[in-house]
UniProtKB/TrEMBL annotation:
EC number: 4.1.1.15
Coiled-coil spans in chain: none
Cofactor names: pyridoxal 5'-phosphate
Positions carrying N6-(pyridoxal phosphate)lysine: K277
Protein name per its UniProtKB record: Glutamate decarboxylase
Secreted in keyword set: no
GO terms for MF: calmodulin binding; glutamate decarboxylase activity; pyridoxal phosphate binding
Keyword Lyase recorded: yes
Record-stated family: Belongs to the group II decarboxylase family.
Entry keyword set: Calmodulin-binding, Decarboxylase, Lyase, Pyridoxal phosphate
GO biological process, one term: L-glutamate catabolic process
Lineage summary: Eukaryota, Viridiplantae, Streptophyta, Embryophyta, Tracheophyta
Length: 494
């Protein structure tokens, strides 16, 4: 047997990483090391430490794609060294991005002719896409106010309190007031009536969510559009709509084609979607498309020529990899409409299987809806002596990552667990998860309640032999959930 050996600059032979001094030496954490180490040792040590990460396939907290076909993996590696911004050097990659923009815009029913080019851009995710869309709305509103001789220093956006944290970032970073519609128990999306009531002359747009992060529910964009048309006719404001379809944009066209939420509605001026969610591409790709070229102010587009030919650019960053753009094009032509429809139908069916299994435990209330992003959000029933956070923590012993979190403003007393059904979550895994949830529940039933310890013996007494008033018990449960929430901030669940 041949034993391969490498030699460092100090002529130290390394026949095995675990037999070398590198297995005994602490790696640099805060300052770069003084000397080099062999490549195989560096690889093995880093790989070993990464074993402590969770398994991406079992990360049911995330909407982001964790599996792609090997052929696409190869394409990604073949293009990993291409900088997308070098459009003159990589014109084919630029052409593939433009094809993706056109396909997605037409998927969303943009009013385009057969040969007309869509207006849109690839981004690193929906967060950047939302920033760009928001900037376009702000600039259009400012230009309109200037032309009318009115003040333009107090723009606002109307959203539901269920929006993803990137909307809060946009409002704070670009000095736009965020007017949020509070939620209520049993209704965890933006109320269109309340949203339109909050619109005023300084509203640059109303943001509707096609697939709430919290429950997966689609907001009623059609109802919002109809109400806003009436208000615009009465006031002359012409307030537009942006649809945040980060999660639902690659779902609704395939399995809910009759649902009107996109450019079929006249006030929808821009839509963002995450390619790295149900677009079925690894993390790092999003898209934003506009209804027409007039909806994106030309003054926001920069033109550069120091990389070769004149290149228009509208992004927040500059350099970025080409791999995810190429992977998105692969999925669009590989799957086609039929393939995407099959994947989304499978996700919906497996969601229903999981929901049925959780309902059969008779321990949970289902919070999510059947129509929407394929996920199951559920909370413990009634006077449970344990919390959703305990269930989430104990499921990690089986490898599952299932988040527990509290709802936003005016529904903070509701705590839920959420399981996102992705392409690679099969029926077998759904059945296995239900079995593991049952194991956790049975174990919790044998453990003392953290709630009882928090109350104290004088308040709680012997749980088995003494009844506790519902009001007192609920007060303590809410207090416990707030205590856990303060320790585990989950507002940015994505």
């Amino acid at each position: 047997m041949v034993l391969s050996r490498t030699t460092t600059e100090s002529n130290e032979p390394v026949s095995s990483t675990f037999g070398s001094r590198y297995a005994l030496t602490a790696l640099p954490k805060y300052e770069i090391g003084e000397s080099s180490i062999p490549k195989d040792a560096a690889y093995q040590i880093i790989k070993d430490e990464l074993m402590l990460d969770g398994n991406p396939r079992l990360n049911l907290a995330s909407f982001v794609t964790t599996w792609m076909e090997p052929e696409c993996d190869k394409l990604i590696m073949d293009s990993i060294n291409k900088n997308y911004v070098d459009m003159d050097e990589y014109p084919v990659t630029t052409e593939l991005q433009n094809r993706c923009v056109n396909m997605i815009a037409r998927l969303f029913n943009a009013p385009l002719g057969d040969t007309e080019t869509a207006m849109g851009v690839g981004t690193v995710g929906s967060s950047e896409a939302i920033m760009l869309a928001g900037l376009a709305f702000k600039r259009n509103w400012q230009n309109k106010r200037k032309a009318e001789g009115k003040t333009y220093d107090k723009p606002n956006i109307v959203t539901g309190a269920n929006v993803q944290v990137c909307w809060e970032k946009f409002a704070r970073y670009f000095e736009v007031e965020l007017k949020e519609i509070k939620l209520s128990e049993g209704y965890y999306v933006m109320d269109p009536e309340k949203a339109v009531e909050m619109v005023d002359e300084n509203t640059i747009c109303v943001a509707a969510i096609l697939g709430s992060t919290l429950t997966g529910e689609f907001e009623d964009v059609k109802r919002l559009n109809d109400l806003l048309v009436k208000k615009n006719d009465a006031t002359g404001w012409n307030t537009p709509i942006h649809v945040d379809a980060a999660s639902g944009g690659f779902i609704a066209p395939f399995i809910y084609p009759e649902l009107e939420w996109d450019f079929r509605l006249p006030l929808v001026k821009s839509i963002n979607v995450s390619g790295h969610k149900y677009g079925l591409v690894y993390a790092g790709i999003g898209w934003v498309v506009w209804r027409t070229q007039h909806d994106l102010p030309d003054e926001l587009i920069f033109h550069i020529n120091y990389l070769g030919a004149d290149q228009p650019t509208f992004t927040l960053n500059f350099s970025k990899g080409s791999s995810q753009i190429i992977a998105q094009y692969y999925q669009l032509i590989r799957l086609g409409f039929e393939g995407y429809k099959n994947v989304m139908e499978n996700c919906r069916e497996n969601m229903l299987v999981l929901k049925e299994g959780i309902e059969k435990t008779e321990r949970f209330n289902i919070v999510s809806k059947d129509v929407g992003v394929p996920l199951v959000a559920f909370s413990l029933k009634g006077q449970s002596f344990h919390s959703e956070f305990e269930i989430s923590e104990m499921l990690r012993r089986f490898g599952w990552i299932v988040p527990a979190y509290t709802m936003p403003a005016d529904a903070e007393h509701i705590t839920v667990l959420r399981v996102v059904i992705r392409e690679d979550f099969s029926r077998t895994l759904a059945e296995r998860l239900v079995a593991d949830i049952l194991k956790v529940l049975h174990e919790l039933d044998t453990l003392p309640s953290k709630i009882s310890r928090k109350m104290g013996a004088e308040d709680f007494g012997n749980v088995k032999g003494k009844k506790v008033k519902r009001e007192k018990l609920m007060e303590v449960i809410v207090g416990w959930r707030k205590f856990v929430k303060d320790r585990k901030k989950m507002n940015g669940v994505c």
